[in-house]
Amino acid sequence: MARLADYFVLVGYDPGKRGSGDGQGQILQRFPEKDWEDNPFPQGIELFCQPSGWQLFPEMNPPSFFVAVLTDINSERHYCACFTFWEPLDTTQAQSHPRNGEEEEEEEEPSSPVQPTQLFAPKSLVLVSRLDHAEVFRNSLGLIYTIYVDGMSVALESIVGNLLTCTIPITGGAQPDLEDEAARTICLGAGDRQVIQTPINDSLPVSSCSVALLFRQLGITNVLYLFCAALTEHKILFLSSSYQRLTDACRALLALMFPLKYSFTYVPILPAQLLEVLSTPTPFIIGVHSIFQSETQELLDVVIADLDGGTVNVPECVHISLLPEPLLQQTREALSMVLDPELEVADLAFPPSTISVSSLKMQDKEIRAVFLRLFAQLLQGYRWCLHIIRIHPEPVIRFHKAAFLGQRGLTEDDFLTKVLEGMAFAGFVTERGAPYRSIDLFDELVAYEVKRMKAEEGNKQKILRHIKELAEKLYKNENPYPAVTMHTVKKPKEGHHLRVQQKPFPRLDEGLVQWIIDQATAKLQTAPPAVKAEVKCMVPSGPPIAAIMERNGNAMANSARRLEVVRNCISYVFENKMLEAKKLFPAVLRAMKGRAARQCLTQELNLHVQQNRAVLDHQQFDFVIRMMNCCLQDCTAMDEHGIAAALLPLVTAFCRKLSPGITQFAYSCVQEHVVWTNIQFWEAMFYCDVQNHIRALYLDSTEENHVEEEDNQEAKSALEIASEQLRLWPTMSKEKQQELIQKEESTVFSQAIHYANRMSYLLLPLDTSKNRLLRSSGLGDVESVSNSFVTNSIAGSVAESYDTESGFEDAESSDVANYVVRFINRFVDKVCTESGVTNEHLKGLHVMIPDIVQMHIETLDAVHRESKRLPPIQKPKLLRPNLLVGEECVMEGLRVYLMPDGREEAAGGNIGGPPLLPAEGAIFLTTYRIIFKGTPTDPLVGEQVVIRSFPIASLTKEKKISIQAQVDQFIQEGLQLRSCTFQLLKIAFDEEVASESAEIFRKHLHKLRYPQHVRGTFAFTVGQVPKQAMQPKPKEKNPSLRTLSKNLVKNAKKTIGRQYVTRKKYTPPTWDQRSSQHFPEDNEDEISVSEEMDRSTLTPSTTIRPSDKMTINHVVERACCRDYQRLGLGTLSSSLTRSKNEPFRISTVNRMYAICRSYPGLLIVPQSIQDNTIQRISRCYRQSRFPVVCWRNAHTKAVLLRSGGLHGKGVVGLFKSQNAPTPGPSQTDSTSLEQEKYLQAVINSMPHYADAGGRNTLSGFTSAHMSSTGKWGSIRASGRMSSYALNVDIGSRLAGKDLLGAQHNGTPSEATFLRPHRASLYIIGDKSQLKGVKPDPLQHWEVVPIEVFDVRQVKASFKKLMKACVPGCPYIDPSVTYLRSLEESEWLSQIHKILQISVLVVELLDTGSSVLVSLEDGWDITTQVVSLVQLLSDPYYRTLEGFRLLVEKEWLSFGHRFSHRGAQTLAGQSSGFAPIFLQFLDCVHQIHLQFPMEFEFSQYYLKFLSYHYISNRFRTFLLDSDYERIELGLLYEEKGEKKSQQVCKSIWDYIERLNKKAPVFFNYMYAPEDGEVLRPYSNISNLKVWDYYTEETLSEGPSYDWELTQGQVEQVEEDRQDTSAPQTKRRIIWPCYDNRSRTEPDAISKLLEELQNLEMELGQVPERWKETWDKVKASQRSEARQEGSRTPSSLLMSSGLSHHRRSLGVYLQESGVGSSLNLSLDSDTSSTSTPSSGKQGGRRSTSTLYSHFQMSESENRSYEGSLYKKGAFMKPWKPRWFVLDKTKHQLRYYDSRMDTECKGVIDLAEVESITPGTPTMGAPKTVDEKAFFDLKTTKRVYNFCAQDVQVAQQWIDRIQSCLSDA
User: Fold this and answer.
1) What's the pTM?
2) Which distant-in-sequence residues (6+ apart) come within 8 Å of 1448 by Cβ?
3) How confident is the model at residue 1503, as a pLDDT?
4) Contact assessment for residue 1858 and residue 1804, using Cβ atoms and an 8 Å cutoff
């Protein structure tokens, strides 16, 4: 029970204190006189009775009533009900009776009419109570006033006494009982009765209709603003001219906030004297009379609500956070349904006639119901975020804000965050957190109705119904008694306040009142105490928040696929499948953006921790750390999702051993995150752990008793256990209570120590030597965190979170340890005081913390030291490259990144797929190559190996670059190495590679690239241990070799010694000179021979010295000699006697290389010319390279000659050497005559010379005549010929601009060139040298001046070509720039020119004229042209053997300067690389493309030569001439030596050996026609860029070092089988990566290989592939002959091809190694893959090959005949014509023999067996049973029937043999 009223006070105007206009009030009487013990008398009541100030009024106002609220020091609210009325006051009286003068006035003053001077003073009756029963107070005070005014005969004292002694129950039960009714009915003894409606549950506020009124006054939006402002602790001021309304408004606002309680300043009516309270800094809710509105204007941060005007004014500087959506919208809608039900139907055509509008009181409850629902939704599941840290003696409860917000996905939400941090919520937790207490409407709502609310969202009817239900409950709570009828309340008569003669209010007898009070108190004490029956129970928790979706939608959050990826990645890491993990890793990092994935990560990692420890290896550790860092970097400092909390135990579990006894834990690498520096995070974690331990404490103790209930126990939450314990607490003994308190306290204490350790782990940086914390803002990017250590630890705001007085500057300078100690101390202080740890314990903790930190620092130092020794990131291990026999590593691998260089489109750029570059690996320098070997950085292709290498000798350019290897790394130094084998190594050195190492690498590279002498090249040093410096004198093993070379050199020197020096031309100095023994006579670099020559040395003596004889024998063995004999140009008989009838002879004039050092020892010269003449002639030509014959046309007997260009400039220059000292004119004449004689001798040698008939004139020479002997690269031969304009004289044509780009003058003098007959000899010379040469009509030769490019242009062009094909950095727009730069390089136009000249020379030779090619020095373009001419004219040179001979003869023997042009030594470094030979090979490649059936060798052969002529792997292409090779003893290596050495020195031997093993160099389409002359197109449009320039094979490096690439395939195969679980037949072939011809070999190679394998398996000695091939060819021919068709000239029955179709070159694209004819022998149906060349004749087959070659079917029919075939199921037998085709390996059938459309195909590959069959229904009757046979394939069984048994047997045998062949 409680007192209705505590004090009754009478307050009056104090006339003595009339200061400056405003008076003051004074308390006239108060009852009871002395304070109640439990409730002292509140101060300052007199201020609140007249809030606007005590003033006198000139007229009487009607009495007023309002309730003011005072808050005392204990924040108890006192409700002061003020009933104010006015009494007249005489001013004089007021002054003469300063004190208590009213009573005398009553007697003295006569009642008289009101005088103008009359003033009226207010007087207030005040009831002070702690209960808010405004209506009861109004009635009671009204009763007192009525008695006084109407002068009723009732003693006021007794009424006041009764009022003060009236007690009422505080809260009612559910339904009031009858005797309760008496207690609730009060009667004050004046015939009145009132029923007091005490609320059933006093925790719910009472609002009567104030809330509804507030909404009426302000409207929905404004009230919501005020509501949010109040909850987020803003200052709120109400203005109104009505005090009662101010009180109501404030009460309404408080009622809306339920279940939160407002705990700041709350003054519904603020007196005028206290207005300065408004400038207080704390939040408040205050009401002020609107007359003071002006005073509130200057308040800047107060939200002002004007109740009378209905406005709410929010100042600019105040930001009110509103409710989070969608709650705000839902609340608005619900409120408008309650307040404005008409709104819903306002637009209806037939609105309902009546709309039920609730009464104001009911509406009030409905509004409150809306807000109650709102809070239930806001706070649903709040009990799951409570941490109970102590149960006894008092429950201590903390709320985990971060988790609460995180579960809702509202961490960013201002409103909720502010509410949770507010005082009101703290009160809410304290009050409602307790697990065992009585519960009210809100507890039920939040526990049981949340699901319903979620379900009803959006359904207005259901929502309204729910609101009405709640409103009913609220109304019921406030008005439990319907008995309003019993009220009888006395009211005064009308107009009572206007009576002027009214006596003043009487003074009451204190004694009487006090006696009544005492009576009542005594009676109360004797009565038994009425205990408020509190029904306590366990508070229901309600459902936990079903993970409310992340705000950003569900797709990102819970994609199951992502979680699967995270799980797989982690399991790969722990199963040590690092490559797999690497592949998934980027996806995992992306997934970490989602919360679910982060939680999944923590759960998965947890599974891998056994007994709190998980030791990992470095790579695993790295992965785990990176995942943790990624996971944490998206966590805010609050850690709302509990990710950091879940990781906290893991970072102390995962570790790696750095060295014995030193372990590094994960925490040292994840310190960079702001969450560790947030003290709230640590508190929440601590409380969570303590709760778990305390729960365990009580679970254990209960489990001892009830083991069998274990399952239920597990399910109990900590709160449930706590409530259980609290229920039992009063029943326990003191000792038991003490013991529990002790246990709990020690639990908290031990956790505090544990946390002090944990915090020191995460706050102390690994490198504690850093004197202060690096205050970075957290982590930028996971990737950049290197795995082994992170130095800058505590990121974020430790310092800021310190108390400011501890001084940040101080923190800055002090060391880390103090810093961390202070942080931990603050934490410990806070949590221990909150959880009630005793002071002694706390002190103990403070002593321990510095020791803990110090110990940890010591362990960290060791870890830091060790971790520094680790490589910063576990990098892939360096892969060792395979080396050749004899190849040595000069420099071990330097770790580098190979960067993309612009042609990587294929490797995963433009065509999709993951990029192979950049790749991470190492670069190796060997004596032969530069090799990069590594793996792509892209984890999706992590298993692939990338190899790129090139021979050192081919390096053309090396430049330093700086490059960013990986996105997140710094710019690093790098190198760009370009090679003329079209490789580019663009590498960036890893940071671990010191720049000195890079420099050493460059130096070594340079030394190897440019050796001092050719002996330093790999071809010589192979097999030796690499030395730093070359030895000056290599020992020669073979004495005979040594003597031979010495003799030669001596003889040459003798000769040279006696010559005048005529001109110098720089060539690399000889070996002797370089070995620093300078011979005085050999200082000049090269000396051309002058007249004063010792004749004896030059005349061929008949008696040759033995040493010379030996030389000659060797020379005879040379290739060119064999060739001369083949061409019939002369033979060497034993005594060197000549057979006079031959026009030419082999001269040994140059055997000592005296005349021309760059010519071979044996030369073909006309028979009639003497050797001594030759010597004189040679002077006229550059480098003494006089004209010699190199080839003779077998038909026309025309010869091809070559020489250097002429020395002279003018006409005379033809026959005179100008710089030579000329003794007399006769001498000059004789030379020119000799030269003329020489040329004439050549002409005489031609058989047609005598015949001057039409054959030799151009007029009779038609294009038709030419095309008969030659073969053009096209069907359009005639059109093509006319473009060559053969009817014009050749000389003028060659000189003309139209063909060779020479200057066309267009002058009439040209006419002189058009001579009636054709010359017998054409001299093709350089235009610049032959300026002004007048043709001599008497001579039979003609000079053709042409313009050619020089070596400089070739070099420049090649550079541009390399740039185009291997750009170095990716193009922006690939198509345009590649083609444009290709065009600008002019490479193709140079090839065009060479081909054009060659074709012209071929024409001339073919028409019987001889040609002398005399360009530049006679060793570059001359060689190209001469070689091509021979290749085009003579089919022999198109075989493997012939081509070798051609190269040996024209390039090696005739002195193409390979070493000089290839810049192979230091001397040649300045001149640079000139690819003359490569250009020649490119020309051959172009011809090969146009005539693929004319060459025995494949394209791969050409690429092989292109690669190795500059690779220096073989000695063949070293040095500049035969002379130099002999000098070094290279030319004639003896047979014995060759065998002993396992290294091949000659490229030809190597090719020969390889060709025996495998058909790589062989062209399967080789089917030559006899005596064929080729005339390729040379227009640029017909030329193709050679794929040698653009293709590469990253899987194994260049495929030209055959041994290196051979061994790899098999092992790759095995590897693949291991890694990929599902076996698939599919092969993925990457352009630029795989070696296509190896991964997908052409059919023939494959068959040959399989054949070889089978032979091996059967234990036979495998046949050479060539033999097999020849056999197959022969058998095909014979089969074809049997068939009666023409003999095929090609294996693949290509005889059907007509002439031009063959020459169109059935060109099958070919790749890397060997030719690849892709025979796809799969089905007969798809004709899509057949190129459309040729007629659409006959049936088309899939295979490209057949579509090209097969003209008539017969060639492919191995056996044919008629058979009956049973149709499919239920079909009849039918006769069909069957063809067995061995080549295609199939059985085809047609309707009849003549039919061309194939009806079906049975693939023999699918046939499983052939068995004798049985006749079935419908089979032909007459046939023998044994003629039936069945063919069983994988798909079905075919039934056949032959005419008779023999035929059937034949068929069975044939098919069997086919099957066994396969």
Assistant:
1) 0.56
2) 1118, 1119, 1120, 1548
3) 94
4) yes
Give the phi and the psi of residue 250 in degrees, each rounded to 5.
-65, -40
Instruction: Please state the separation of Cα 1832 from the chain's center in Å.
Output: 53
Peptide bond into 918 cis (omega under 30): yes
Separation of alpha carbons 1627 and 1625, rounded Å: 6
Cα atoms in the 13 Å half-sphere on the side-chain side of 1191: 30
Residue 861 has pLDDT above 80, yes or no: yes
Q: What residue has token string 């059938």?
A: 1789
Beta strands in 1237-1320 (DSSP E): 1270-1272
Q: Are 161 and 509 in contact (CB under 8 A)?
A: no
Above pLDDT 70, what percent of the chain?
Answer: 73
Residue position matching structure tokens 């313009």: 1347
Separate counts of helices (H) and strands (E) for the chain:
66, 44
* For residue 248, pLDDT beyond 80: yes
Find out whether 345 and 355 touch, Cβ atoms under 8 Å.
yes
In whole angstroms, give the CA distance from residue 550 to residue 764: 34
SS3 1279: helix
Residue 397: helix, strand or coil by DSSP? strand
pLDDT digits (tens, 9 = 90+) for 85-136: 888 876 554 443 443 333 333 333 344 444 456 788 888 999 999 888 888 8
Q: For 284-294, what is each residue's pLDDT tens digit?
A: 999 999 998 88
CA angle 1748, 1751, 1753 (to 5 degrees): 115
Quick check: 162 and 189 in contact, CB under 8 A?
yes
Quote the DSSP letter at residue 116: T
Q: What is the pLDDT of residue 701?
A: 65
The count of residues in the chain is: 1862
| Cα angle: 1272, vertex 1274, 1277; to 5 degrees | 65
Which contiguous run of DSSP H or E holds residue 1225?
Answer: helix 1225-1244
- Contacts of residue 655, defined as CB under 8 A and 6 or more positions apart, other chains included, come to 613, 614, 615, 616, 621, 663, 664, 665, 666
Give the tens place of pLDDT for each residue, 1434-1479. Answer: 999 999 999 999 999 999 999 999 988 888 888 888 888 899 999 9
**Cα(1765)–Cα(1761) distance, rounded to whole angstroms?**
12
Q: Percent helix, strand and coil across the chain, each rounded to 5?
A: 45, 15, 40
CB-based contacts of 571, cutoff 8 Å, min separation 6: 604
- What is the rounded CA–CA span in Å between residue 377 and residue 457? 11
Phi, psi of 1222 (to 5 degrees): -95, 120
Alpha-carbon distance 1012 to 1467, whole Å? 8
The pLDDT of residue 1670 is: 82
Q: How many beta carbons lie within 10 A of that of residue 1308, not counting itself?
A: 7
Residues 601, 591 contacting (CB under 8 angstroms):
no
List the beta bridge partners of residue 784.
Answer: none
The residue whose two tokens read 């108190």 is 521
For β-strands 311-313 and 386-390, DSSP reports them as unpaired
- Helix 1421-1433 × helix 1476-1490 angle, to 10°: 20
What is the rounded distance in angstroms from the CA atom of residue 930 to the CA atom of residue 978? 11
Q: Residue 1477's pLDDT is what?
A: 95
- Note the pLDDT tens digit of each residue in 1706-1735: 333 333 343 333 333 333 333 333 333 333
Classify 125 as helix, strand or coil.
strand
pLDDT for the residue numbered 442: 82
Lowest mean pLDDT of 183-197, 702-716, 980-994, name the range. Answer: 702-716
* Distance in angstroms (rounded) separating the CA atoms of residues 874 and 856: 26
Query: What is d(CA 76, CA 2) in angstroms, rounded to the nearest whole number?
Result: 15
Cis-peptide into 88, omega within 30 deg: no
Per-residue pLDDT, 1230: 65
Residue 1197 three-state SS = coil
